[in-house]
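Researcher: Let's run the pair from yesterday's discussion. Sequence first, then tokens, for each.
Model: Starting with the first of the pair.
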Amino acid sequence: MPQLALLLSTLVWGATFPATKAALEEILPFSFLFLRFLLGTVLTLGIVLAAGRRLRLDRDVLRMSAIATVFLFLGYATQTVGLRYTTASNSAFITALYVVLVPLFLGRFQIRTWASAGLAVLGLWFLVDPTVSLNQGDLLSLVCAAAFATHICCLEAYTRRGDAVSLFGWQLVFVTLAMLPAMVIESPETVRFTPTAVLMVALIVTGVLATGAFAVQMWAQSIVPAQRVALIFSLEPAFAAWLAWYFLGEQLDQGGWLGSGLILVALLTECVGQESAGVAAQAGSPTVGTEGQEAWHKSSATPDG
């Protein structure tokens, strides 16, 4: 169930690439990001309050939220600015290199994990056929990949140690506050905020649907290992390439279909191998995933102050 939820979240995030690319034709990057996260924050806080809850002001929760927000802000900032200078497909490919960076950062060097990651990267190359020469947008996307990889690593630990709901809410609050001065420095013209159809659709996709996808990630990372989360997310460029082809006219040739197949094989290799390795563990002590799932349900069900 968590892996299927992550797969659906990946579809949503794939849609954010062409949506954001189109919106940036009308609005500046940090202005768009501020509106996106403001919308997501308002919706999230509204749901939390309607459920009779409050975000915890616990020092550890705030500290973990702040650390995770640094990498979340850096990831979205470099990704969105980079999209102004490169294609949606190129951005998606380079960003998805976190499939290799996550196990590297965590020091997890199992043969199956690296074989799956390598196969996924090969599939990504065939899928989007990125240009060999890097431009400014590609370099920013590379920084984005490192930031998101670190964020995924953080969430694996933090969602199993603290109140996941509060951790989710505070990250949205903090990243929205961080985008405000960035937007002011950007000095956008008032006309840039005209609510056109393109901008409104982009905000719905990124501010509403992607915020929901982020909530799913927070829940799933208390159960699923970070390297498998990154591997599932490697399907994001596949979704992005298909949607960019359909909405933006970017090409998807036979190499794209081959790459998509390789990514799916990589994901199946990791998942099937992990399931086989975990059969014996089910008869023993509770797994980390089970403990994480119980922690999530407990944090979701217990009112806090």
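Model: Moving on to the second of the pair.
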Amino acid sequence: MATRPAPGFLRFTQESWQELRKVTWPSRETVIRLTVIVLIISAIVAAYILLFDNVFHLLVDRWVLNTPETTPAPLPVQQ
């Protein structure tokens, strides 16, 4: 026995489809251009956060925690 969708759901679907037909969709070129802009701005924000995170880390390590600058591990002595 197949069930019919409720009249409210059917009406909602029809009205949603009508509204979607009224939308002015952007062109392919606009979508590509805006996507590139978002990627560039995201990269700039990521670089900004990375820079200030490293500066903050350096300041906390050197002046707050008084940890010395890390030195490389000594090479093993070869006999």
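Researcher: Give me one sentence on the second I can quote.
Model: The chain has two helices and no strands.
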